[in-house]
Amino acid sequence: MFDRAAGSPIVRGGLVISAGLIAGNLVGFFRVALTAYLLGTHSAADALAVAVGPIDTLNSVLINTMVFAFVPMLTERDGAARAALFRKLNRVFVRVFGLLTAAIILLAPWLIGVLAPGLDAAYVGTAVTLLRIAAVSSLAAGTAALHVAFLFTHRRFAPTVFNQAVVNLLTIAAALGLWRILGVYGFAIGYSAGAWVQLGIVYFAARIHLNTECTIEPDVHWRALLAKPGSFLVYAGMIALNVVITRAYATHAGTGMAAALDYSMRCLNVPLAYLINPVSNSLLPEIARLRSQFQLRRAFGLIDKTIALVGLVAVVGCVAGIALRQPLIALLFERGNFTPQSTRLVSAVFLGFAPSLVGWSLLELLARALFALDRPWLPLRAVAIPVIFNLGFVLLVRSPKPQWIGVGASLGFLIAFLLLFLLVRMNRRRWLEKAASDAQPVLEIA
Length: 446
Fold this sequence. Notes:
Elements: H1 2-7, H2 9-39, H3 43-75, H4 79-106, H5 108-115, H6 124-153, H7 163-182, H8 185-207, H9 222-227, H10 230-250, H11 257-292, H12 296-323, H13 325-333, H14 340-353, H15 356-372, H16 377-382, H17 384-396, H18 407-445
């Protein structure tokens, strides 16, 4: 039995994905620790946070959107037809990613004014340059995401899942190697270099699955391809926008606040990734299968159990993190330019932002489950709530103390999840009745 399980493509794929997640988070810790050691919570750290942080978020949105949108479309085709569709996706979206990168580079001064309105004026130029350097990574990240989607359809996980580890490794190497020459710019150079190295890895891995003599033209118009990722892009973009607003808000609170928020988010990213990714990777295909078989009652039961379990783990993790935040942050980061004062600052910011772990993880899981049930409109509406609430909080509390910086995001995520959960409960009976009526003709034919 063990040999059979170990030979299963699903088990092997799950083990590889888990290894990639562990490697990415482990190397990511050293990246954050190096940033803390060299920059602490000084203005240079703020400039790095407001420039590279949004690009990191943008790249994550691009990767998740491309994979979510096009893995099913590519899976529906085989052989030459799949390869032809992949080529067309590349032709269409490489232009889109190229235009996006060029726009960020050209508009960098204006973007920094929006992303970091309270940044120390002496470091605005530094942030603009960092943003332009980091923006080069988005073309590579977006293109690599298409290759990842293509490789997923061939169950080739190993070249794809170490993306974050590669980016973090190159960031660390460049930051250390260029520190005496270029200072903080080494971080952005390494980040972009890592994205391009990862593109090279997945590019060469995908080549063996491409039929170079294929002349098939996919029967999908480029406009349909652009529209395909629309709903998930809006959803992921709104989640990212909530974080961007919080980071911009932090720059108004004084020197070191944006960096402190970035360190806090890095501390939360690890439990957040483990709460969302492994669970959703196993849950969503099962939900989609049950939906195709009109077994919505079982699908809802599975969703309820998952939400309850993840909610319990998230609450326990949040309480433990808040209770132990100061000694843990000191243990992880307090060395070099990261002083005891930096520890107190990050601990204060973490206090307000840590509760977002609960609402954020539950909102993500329930929203993704609804996407799998082909009910995207409810999560698309609910995901606007954190942004609206956070904006209202920002306008209401003009001079925040460190512990207040993340409160708007934390409450916004929790309110959005509770509202979405209630809307699902209200619509559940109607959806079950519709599934039963849709299943009846199928059963009669069978």
